[in-house]
């Protein structure tokens, strides 16, 4: 019995020591956690200070960037109705350069969708954005806020600036978007339809069925026909397409809806003496607004 009692006593002492050890460990862990929490709070506070400093720097930079962009682009930009009125009155070909196009101009390896930025394509874009022909107008997006445009052009960098310095007038690419139709309602549709009223028009697109469904959008044109382009090789087939239509004297207006390469197509058609307009998105916008499917 004494041996058993001794064993029980040792077990109890061991349990007690373990409890003390666990308690001490718990205290140490708690102290460590508090230390970590304090350290984290200090780090968070420092990060907040750095963020505030960066916000101030960004705000100051944005003000300067906005001032630069205002003189470079936005003071030259037409309103959406004025853009369409000028295109109609002077029969100006209209090529839009969206953010993805501007990135392609300044970044050699930038890729968008199915269009890889080959050296040939990049030079074609540069030629299109640099064109000074009186019958040709480039378009850029105004968007809703100055902050959005500053952010975009800051990401693109100042390398894009020289392309706009000598341009006196810039069209408004927002003529394609829902906001234009929402703000101007029937007037927006009327302005668009006035471009092809009584004319023979031809749409360059990937799928002509999308446009055949818009019966009322083109019902005032004299005629409507299509050139279907393979989406995978839209830019590569540019020369072949131009060759096929160079002697086409029956078409009054070409509407180009080829996504990324559209600006290059419009520019090439304009140089060939054709009247061409970037027509991306507007057909879908029209169908959304009118419910015509």
Helix-strand layout with pairing:
Blueprint: H1 2-72, H2 80-90, E1 93-96, H3 99-106, E2 111-112, E3 115-116, H4 119-130, E4 136-140, H5 146-156, H6 162-165, E5 171-172, H7 178-184, H8 186-194, E6 200-205, H9 209-212, E7 223-228, H10 238-245, E8 253-257, H11 262-271, E9 276-278, H12 282-290
Parallel strand pairs: 1-4, 4-5, 6-7, 6-8, 8-9
Antiparallel strand pairs: 2-3
Concise summary:
This protein has 293 residues and is α/β, with parallel strands linked by helices. It has 2 domains: 1-72; 73-290, no CATH class.
Kindly describe this structure.
- The chain is of the alpha/beta class and 293 residues long.
- It has two domains: 72 residues; 218 residues, no CATH class.
- The chain has twelve helices and nine strands.
- The strands form three sheets. It has a four-stranded parallel beta sheet, with helices on one face.
- Strand 2 and strand 3 form a beta hairpin.
- Helix 2 packs parallel to helix 8 and helix 4 crosses helix 11.
- The longest helix has 71 residues.
- The model has no long low-confidence stretch (mean pLDDT 81).
Radius of gyration: 32 Å
Task: Tell me the quaternary state.
Answer: single chain
Order of helices and strands: HHEHEEHEHHEHHEHEHEHEH
Helix proportion: 55-70%
Features:
single chain, alpha/beta, four-stranded parallel beta sheet, three-stranded parallel beta sheet, 12 helices, 9 strands, 56% helix, 12% strand
